[in-house]
C-alpha cells in the first residue's frame, strides 16, 4: 500500500540552496524512493515571483513522488501540518554590517518562525536549521518553541562532515563511501574541529584507522583541519557564490539518517542540544558524533579525547557561548 505523503517545509526556497534542495526532496533523496512528499516552500515577499517560478519548475519536472506544492510568503500557511522543517531562509551578512546587526536580524526571523512552527507544525516535527549562524539560529528556535521537544531541533554540520570524508578519500585515493566516522565538533564556523581520531577506511583486510593509513600526523593536525574549516570560503572564491548543491545534498543526508537510521557501526555529525556530554557546556547547540535509530539521535558516548582535541572542543564551545550571549543581547 502506498505510504501517506510527508509534508516537508523548506524556508528560503527561492534561494540557491532551496533551488538545489527541492528537486532532491521531490525525487526521494531525503526520505526514500517510496515516500511521497508534499513540499511547503516559504520565502519573503520580494522573492515571491521567483518562488512561484520554482513551483512551476517542480510541476514541469513531473516528479512521481511529489503529491503537492505549497508556495507562500505566509509563515503560518507554510508551517501548517509539516512533519519536517528545513530552515534555509535567513539574513546574510552584507558588506559593512556589524556581527550584532546580522545576529539581530536572524534572531528576529528565528523567533517568529519558531512560534509559527510551534503552533502549526505536525506533532513531532523534526527541524533542521541550515541558515547561518546555524547553531545559534537553532538555539533561538528552540527557545521560542518550548513545546517542540529539544531533541527535535538540530542544525546542519553534515556538510562539514562530508567535506572531511571527501578530503580523506582524496588524500588516500579511496572511495569516499569506504571512509567513515569522522567527527565535526562544535560550531558550523571556522572554529569547528574536524576530528579523524576515530575514523576508519574499509580495506580488503578490514577497517583500518585513518591515522595509520595517512601516516602523516602533521598534515592531519593542521592542513586537513584548516582545509575543512575553510572549505566554504574556498567555494565562494571559486564560484563567487556559496556552496549550494553540497549543502542541499548534506541536508538530505542529515534528515535521511535521522528518520531512517544510521548504518550499524557508523556515526555522523549533527548539531544538537548539548546535555553536557564530553564536558561541552549544556544549553548550546553543538555538533557531536551521533547515531540514529527509530527516528531519534543519540550522542556517541565514551570516545577518548586527547589533549589536542580537548583544546579544540573547548575553543569552539567558547565561540558558541559568545554567539549565544550576543543572540540573547539582541532580544532585550
Ligand atoms: N549549515 C551549512 O552547512 C550551510 C552551508 C551553506 C550555506 N548555509 C547558509 O544557508 C543559508 C542560505 O544560503 P543560500 O545560498 O541559499 O542563500 P540565498 O541568499 O541564495 O537564499 C536565501 C533565501 O532565504 C530567503 N529569506 C530571507 N529571509 C527569509 C525569511 N524571513 N523567511 C523565509 N525566507 C527568507 C531569501 O529571500 C532567499 O531566497 C545562508 O544563511 C547560508 O549562510 C549554511
TrEMBL record:
One of its GO terms (molecular function) is L-malate dehydrogenase (NAD+) activity. NAD(+) binds at residues 12-18, 43, 106, 130-132. Its EC number is 1.1.1.37. SUPFAM superfamilies: LDH C-terminal domain-like (SSF56327), NAD(P)-binding Rossmann-fold domains (SSF51735). Keywords: NAD, Oxidoreductase, Tricarboxylic acid cycle. Substrate binds at residues 93, 99, 132, 163. Residues 6-153 form the Lactate/malate dehydrogenase N-terminal domain. GO terms for biological process: malate metabolic process; oxaloacetate metabolic process; tricarboxylic acid cycle. Gene3D superfamilies: Lactate dehydrogenase/glycoside hydrolase, family 4, C-terminal, NAD(P)-binding Rossmann-like Domain. PROSITE patterns: MDH (PS00068). InterPro entries: L-lactate/malate_DH, Lactate/malate_DH_C, Lactate/malate_DH_N, Lactate_DH/Glyco_Ohase_4_C, Malate_DH_AS, Malate_DH_NAD-dep_euk, Malate_DH_type2, NAD(P)-bd_dom_sf. Residues 157-325 form the Lactate/malate dehydrogenase C-terminal domain. It catalyses: (S)-malate + NAD(+) = oxaloacetate + NADH + H(+). It is an enzyme of class 1 (oxidoreductase). Coiled coil: none annotated. The active site is at 188 (proton acceptor). CDD domains: MDH_cytoplasmic_cytosolic. Belongs to the LDH/MDH superfamily. MDH type 2 family. PANTHER family: MALATE DEHYDROGENASE (PTHR23382). This is Malate dehydrogenase. It comes from Solanum tuberosum.
